[in-house]
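We modelled the chain as a single entity of 881 amino acids. Its sequence is:
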Amino acid sequence: MSFSKILPLMLAAAPLAMAVPALAQTAPAGPAAGVTTQLPRGAAPSHYAIQVTPDAANLKFTGKVTIDITVAQAMPALVLNAADLTVSGVTLTPAKGKAVKGTAKVDADAQTVTFDFGKPVQPGSYKLAIDYTGTINTQANGLFALDYTDNDGKAKRALFTQFEAPDARRFVPSFDEPSYKATFDLSAVIPADQLAVSNMPVKSSTDAAGGKKLVTFGTSPKMSSYLLFFGLGELERATKQAGATEVGVITGKGNTGKAQLALDASAAILPYYNDYFGVPFPLPKLDNVAGPGQSQFFSAMENWGAIFTFERALLVDPRFTSESTRRVIYSIVAHEMAHQWFGDLVTMAWWDDLWLNEGFASWMATKVTDKLNPEWEMLLSRVNGRERAMSLDSLVTTHPILQKIHTVDEVNQAFDDITYEKGEAVITMLEGFAGEEAWRSGIRAYMKQHAYGNTVTDDLWKAVEGAGAKGVVGIAHDFTSQPGIPLVKVDSAQCQGGSTLLSLSQGEFSRDRKDKTPLRWNVPVMAQTIGGTQQQLILNGSAQVTLPGCGAYVINAGQTGYYRSLYPEANVKALAKDFTKLASMDQIGLLADNFQLGLGGYQPMGLALDLIDAVPVNASPAVLAEVPGYLDSAHSMLESDKAAQARVTAYASKKLSPVLATVGFDAQPGENPQVPVLRSALVSTLGGMGDKAVVAEANKRFAALAGNPAALDGPLRNVWLRIIAENADAATWEKLRGLANGAKTDLEKSTTFALLGVAKDEALAAKALDLAMTDEPGKTTSAAIISAVGGEHSMLAVDYVLAHRQQYEAMIDVSARSQAIARLGGNSADPVMVTKLDGYASQYLTPESRKVVDRSIAAIKTRIETRARLKPALLAWFAKK
């Protein structure tokens, strides 16, 4: 859906419309001067009293709301946000005066409702009462329904809400922007045998007619509308106490045991956050609510006191949950809990500063997960996060962390790896520059100063610099206000008297515009020789630095810097020779940096492959787990040449099979905590490439299911099934379909159905697409099947979706619709795909909503160029091996 430009201000100087009290001296809450709003300035809410009556069976609800509003200046009418709501009545009551009935006019495109009371509304305090009806959606927008099968095999329906970014307006007419903070009273008329949940605990429950009850929740703290939450169904709750706060998990009946990891994580994380932020969690309870199904847009949402998470990102099933998934679940819990401060307690003033929510929550989640689970070595994951950001940031279609948001479509498209992963990477770099103590002191001051309020990014920088981190503002501005990736180049290195003198210069790393005039950053560089003392400098242009010791060196020691490091060839070879002397973080960072420099044409690809080749079989399991991904990337780059791919597979088998033989196909008692992650990476990559031994093992285990339904149970169950699905013939594909339909839980069912889309056989992929258009997989699983097809057959998937566009869009969240087709085609290396995506965007999208399409087009063009350029070098290198 397209949306209109920002509405013009509706100000008027008109006669008094009705008797009202004198205007209070303080201005109402709402956007500060200079902060974007799509609503007319001059009126703001302070409190909402909402009552809803859901009709889950018929996918509709009725509602009534009374909003306490302060009007600061005469308004010709009151304009609120509303979408898919029908208003049946509205009255406006002054603090001292009689109620006046009004009329409602809905603008569906602008997602607003205008309330006209016959004359301008004069300054004062009012109660705005609205009666309305709404739609219960089947995808995760507004109030939505999720259908599932319970543990007894019975069909059930649960209701939940998803309001970020602009969908509270689908639940209640409201000032649905982050700056319009208010308190909320929520009540609901629900079936007497069901459990309702919201941000606050239940305050009262009274019987109502027709087997119903009226549940009323406590008054919320002052918060933004997108953080309001409501859930309803045949649910149950398990709790633990964490200091003064009751933490809980809410699932379908019989499933709270599968949420034990999330419950334990919440209880452990909350005290850490209370201490770190210096402001205790202010609500009496904090629940994590699990919902069946999935979204193509998000996994979890940080509603204050009532986090919503899809089951696949929260529940642990020992039959198939991998160790990697367990760690992801822990990190998601930590991420959403960090939002309870960054986002909920202190909220960005407008979506331009979305990264204040997401980047900080990602950074904090990694920090706390590493602190509480040091054996997981979670800090190493920051390199991969940095790389995901840089994959977008290296293209002409990138954007700054701080981006100007004008429309709802632009808000939805702002949830990307620049916001999340570059945000985390830049924060990591700034913390390293400032020092942990000064950084934390600044965060605490920021939280205390802005609690229950709204901020912009500069408010944080001022707090951190005020805590003693001098110089952080200049660095922060460079990395948040401009796009792109600094390229730090070593122009020369000389060993003199036992020290190494490096001459450094700065450029810009780009995959598709290497001829552009480079931007300039103040880059905090941390350099050292292997085993030497680290030396820090701020690079802006060129500089020299002297490092204690001689020999191989790194110029992003600890990998906290957000930049690429380009070395002379001699140093890359020296690093390959001394690879095992490097810290694991630097080993992983160097592999990533040099692979991307090879892809970008900044150095020979063979140098990166030599580094990969230098990783020994006895390296850290965390480092070894990175190697399969690079070999899989090389395999994919040669997809048009099966003989060349066979050489990559042969090398991968030779390189990785000894490692797999050491760790085995199954877990061993007392093994290194990183080995399960390594095992999964080895099996999935070798199986995907067609390694004969791994494929044979997958076939053997799959065949064993005929006599033992538990033959595949364990953390690699879905890895083995994926290998089977990738190589399936028609008969095997039907067996997998039978497994999906016979699955014991909805989570297992949806996961297995999605695997039907990964078949390499194009006829089976087409069959999977047809299956996705039926009711068999389930309403929220069909889109996942189509996405799986897109991974292997992007052209087939895009063509199919374009031919069934309306049916496909009904399968996904409104928030994802402008992005979904771009994601389906984004991994292509076919110039025809560029034409198709551009044609789709030109026909159906606005200039504001086609940004993700343009990113996919840029990535495809770059991929085509890269593969053509690198094929001879890849062929030559693998031929030698």
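As a brief sanity check on the tokenised model: The chain is about 40% helix and 20% strand. Residues 851-880 form the longest helix (30 residues).
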